[in-house]
Amino acid sequence: MNVVSRKEKREHEKDTNYFFELMKIKNHFMKDLDVRFKNVKDPRHQSYITYDCDILLFMIILKNVCNLKSMRSMTNHFNKEECIDNVGKILGLETLEELPHYDTINDFLSELDPKELEDIRTYIIKELLKKSCFDRYRINGKYWGVIVDGTGLFSFDHKHCDHCLRREYTDKETGEKKTVYMHHVLEAKLVIGDMVLSIASEFIENESEDVSKQDCELKAFYRLAEKLKDSYKRLPSVLGDSLYACEGVFNQCNEFKWKYMFRFKEGRIKSISKEFQKIKELEQDDTSSDIFWVNEISYNQRKVNVLECTMEETEKGVMKFTFITDFNITKRNAKNLVGVGRSRWKIENQGFNRQKNIRYHIEHASSHNYVAMKNHYLLAQIADILMLLYEKGCRMLKSFQKTAKEISSNLLEAIRTRRITDEDITTLVKPIQVRFT
Ligand SMILES: [Zn+2]
């Protein structure tokens, strides 16, 4: 890729309609998205309907890609003739006069079954996996890397709903006992090159307020696993942190014929650590080697493999990473497996960080209704998939070398100022060139 000069950049940019380029990517990778949005099971009373489901959902996608934090700012920013026209053109709504107000959208999202949006995301991911350009990113040519990790979304100092997770703590200053109320989510994210795409979400939540034992990440994992199994036939290799290195999860992976690779902290399973250390002391003659592994360590009724690597990190000094896996480790694949294990966490941290602090603001509650909160979260995941494909696949954008925030401002500007013509719309069906290298 050539880096263009500033003058060339100005010339290019003048001719570039960022929003329309994004719509081309949408049509290329998820051509039925609008139809699927239109056909979700509409929970509303049919006699009061002004807007179809597609426009209500599409507005939130636009809010996310333009990086607008609040629902109010969405309604304000999009309240422009050009914007109304553009949305009407894209969705094929000839007579659109006003965009829906955020209250209308939130009322709808409070009633919509989140499963509807989960199914649409599954459709998108399945379409992507059909494209052979992604095949080379499989592990051992066969397995798709899927990272499982949880994160906090919302927290409140008062009870928010019956499903809140609760944690008690003592206020350091006053010594008072307090309770924090939270919502967390467990994510399964597919790794394709340097993209991590959300493929399934499981909310960590209490069934009711009076449960004796609260929900947790590990419990949510088994529900997430069922969802993954139901939605995708392709074989994942599950990657996760040390929390998942336990009998129940190994068992679940074996049963579903999934491979696994988890970080392994000493003490997570003591007998395995001991065995590994013992063999290491006996066998590791060449201490200069930075990778050491032991295959077939017995644990309960199974055999597990442990891989350890030591590496010089510039900032943190020497770091040691240990993984537990059922991939058979060989001289040929050891280094690659370390790469699989390591790069994933790096990417993953960036993934949540991006969604919290750079774009989408997933910790900001766009509604206080729990169902709407879930739907907002799922729409942010769909918007994120679209934006990753756009930013990594659109050649024009790569040559401009813009930050995520800049791209979002360009999108907002384009949708508010540049009218899409009927002629533009006819070009949307034409095939486009997308490259992810
Ligand atoms: Zn709650």
TrEMBL record:
Pfam families for this protein: DDE_Tnp_1, DDE_Tnp_1_assoc
Span of domain H repeat-associated protein N-terminal: 36-119
GO terms of molecular function: DNA binding; transposase activity
Recorded superkingdom: Bacteria
Domain (Transposase IS4-like): residue spans on this chain: 217-382
GO biological process, one term: DNA transposition
InterPro entries listed in its UniProt record: Transposase_11, YbfD_N
UniProt name for this protein: Transposase family protein
Lineage, top ranks: Bacteria, Bacillati, Bacillota, Bacilli, Bacillales
